[in-house]
Design goal:
globular; single chain; 436 residues; 18 helices; mainly alpha
Length: 436
């Protein structure tokens, strides 16, 4: 079991009583007391089997995303499509995330976590299966947009479920496990790219089948609901909740924003810069792999460290290390081994920025605003992912005598400074102190 409960709580499990779930108004005193206890702990009933299903479907989602980026880029490049249009097509995924975000909270609160995950997984499966149907720039752009919608639905529901279910002392660890499995899937996904030489449709079909297998397991787990203290019945209500979540935790949305910028610019702009400083394609691949491996290896330890020493302190530390590593990388551009070491260490540090940002947000907002906070984390990541390639390309074009790594170091330093100066201490959800 990921979460342990005493005998009294176990008796309620048998009665299918869940924390943060809407119940009948005729609730017994004992049940009410139990729900209040669970609310105080910030957790809901979740066993290891349910947690395993959630992180497994997230890993498959990461696998499909990791496959699509290089696969479609290679296909379009082989067809002679310009690099600018190739990049524009990739933007469809992040546009889908931004388009669906304002409308996700209401169905989650009304129908619960499971239906939203089922919907998101089904959209991804169908979209992947439709790629071989018609090879067209705009058709594939539309499919990537739908994959963005489906992936965000899936991630939003699983993130909220896990953050709501996690006790404060294990929140960083559990979110880090979530990030680890997504990262593993994302790193393995590109391995399907060489199959394009066998058949262009084969990678899409295999990825769709794998997503379908993982999706089936979701049907076997029981549904649950986020805390229902205020009804969200309209788009205006959602906007008001966005404003409330921003008031509590605006500082926590900066790490996901920075990570979106970092990830997208490294995968799209850095290869261009690498070729211009006479790195080979193989060397560029090694450098990106070094960063990814570093991020995966140290994701869980950083989550556990943040549980012990605090999210704000951990974020400031890793951002300082990341800034230092990318600054040294700008000096060691002529030495491949030096670059690999710098990017590996940078991955170990800032590769957990997104998951730590989510954990930080969870510590700062009230429990009933967790769905809204998770939405805003996803939106911040998408905004960073959208502006990263563009700003990176502009820098490479107009500042040819300055190292590209300086841009990344500067972004990380700015975010670190803001968190250090304006960051809030997250000792057991500061809003509880305000409520008192």
């Amino acid at each position: 079991m990921f979460f342990s409960f005493d005998r009294k709580i176990s008796s309620f499990i048998s009665k299918k009583i869940y924390c943060n779930t809407v119940h009948s108004p005729l609730t017994s005193f004992r049940e009410t007391k139990y729900r209040q206890q669970c609310k105080k702990q910030g957790s809901i009933i979740m066993n290891s089997k349910k947690f395993a299903v959630l992180i497994s479907i997230v890993s498959i989602s990461g696998f499909s995303q990791g496959m699509l980026l290089p696969l479609i880029a290679v296909i379009f490049e082989n067809d002679g499509l310009s690099s600018s249009l190739n990049g524009l097509n990739a933007v469809g995924l992040y546009m889908g995330i931004l388009l669906i975000s304002p409308f996700m909270e209401y169905p989650l609160r009304k129908y619960g976590y499971k239906p939203v995950i089922v919907f998101g997984g089904l959209v991804v499966i169908l979209s992947l299966a439709l790629f071989p149907l018609w090879k067209s720039f705009w058709f594939w752009f539309l499919l990537r947009l739908f994959i963005g919608i489906g992936d965000h639905s899936l991630h939003f529901a699983t993130q909220t479920w896990i953050t709501t279910a996690s006790p404060i002392e294990k929140r960083g660890r559990n979110i880090s496990l979530y990030g680890v499995f997504f990262g593993i899937g994302f790193a393995v996904g590109p391995l399907l790219t060489p199959l394009v030489k066998v058949n262009e449709s084969l990678p899409f079909i295999l990825s769709s089948i794998m997503c379908f297998i993982a999706w089936i397991f979701i049907l076997w787990i029981k549904n649950d609901f986020p805390e229902q203290t205020v009804e969200t019945n309209s788009f205006l209500d959602t906007m008001k909740r966005f404003s409330s979540a921003m008031k509590y935790a605006w500082i926590a949305f900066l790490p996901p924003l920075a990570y979106g910028f970092l990830e997208s610019s490294l995968n799209s702009s850095f290869p261009v810069y690498g070729l211009r400083i006479d790195l080979s394609v193989v060397q560029i691949s090694l450098l990106l792999t070094a960063f990814s491996i570093g991020a995966i290896v140290f994701q869980l330890p950083l989550g556990m460290i943040s549980d012990k020493f605090g999210r704000r302190r951990t974020l400031v530390t890793i951002l300082i290390i990341g800034t230092t590593c990318f600054s040294f990388a700008s000096i060691l551009e002529a030495y491949l081994i030096g670059l690999i070491i710098c990017l590996f260490l940078a991955g170990m540090a800032v590769g957990s920025t997104f998951s730590l940002g989510i954990s930080y947000m969870t510590d700062l907002v009230p429990t009933n605003l967790l769905p809204t906070g998770n939405l805003l984390c996803g939106m911040a990541f998408s905004v960073g992912s959208l502006i990263g390639p563009y700003l990176g390309g502009v820098f490479i074009q107009y500042f040819q005598h300055i190292s590209y790594f300086i841009v990344i170091a500067a972004i990380l330093f700015v975010v670190c400074s803001i968190i250090l100066i304006f960051g809030k201490k997250e000792s057991r959800n500061h809003y509880l102190t305000e409520a008192k």
